[in-house]
């Protein structure tokens, strides 16, 4: 709570304070539990052959990568 008040009362944007707040708020057993559940669901979907319709869903105007065709030309060759 103190960190929140300090950041809210400080003038301007403070990316370091934001990074610290993220580290304090999101590191812990809750995060590990959520991430484990997420990864387990992802692994189960991949094992069953389903991709939940995200990539290559056959949507008109989209390349197999899931990127709209017009955008895929601009991003070719980028890392």
Question: What features would you describe in this structure?
Answer:
The protein has 79 residues and is an all-alpha fold. The chain has a domain of 26 residues. It is 59% helix and 0% strand. It contains four helices and no strands. The protein is elongated and about 50 Å long.
List keywords for this structure.
0% strand; mainly alpha; 79 residues
Taking all Cα atoms into account, the compactness measure Rg is: 20 Å
Poorly predicted tracts of residues: 56-76
Helix count, DSSP H or I runs of 4 or more residues: 4
In terms of DSSP E residues, the strand content is under 5%
In which range does the helix fraction lie? Answer: 55-70%
Count of distinct strands: 0
Present the secondary structure layout.
Elements: H1 2-9, H2 15-26, H3 29-48, H4 69-75
Can you describe this structure in just a few lines?
By secondary structure, the chain is mostly helical. The chain has helices at about 1-10, 15-25, 30-50, 70-75.
């Amino acid at each position: 709570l103190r960190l929140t008040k300090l950041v809210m009362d400080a003038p301007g944007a403070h990316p370091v304070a934001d990074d610290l707040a993220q580290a304090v708020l999101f590191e812990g057993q809750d995060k590990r539990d959520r991430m484990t559940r997420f990864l387990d669901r992802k692994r189960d979907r991949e094992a069953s052959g389903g991709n939940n319709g995200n990539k290559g869903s056959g949507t008109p105007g989209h390349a197999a990568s899931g990127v709209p065709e017009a955008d895929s030309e601009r991003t070719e060759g980028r890392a």
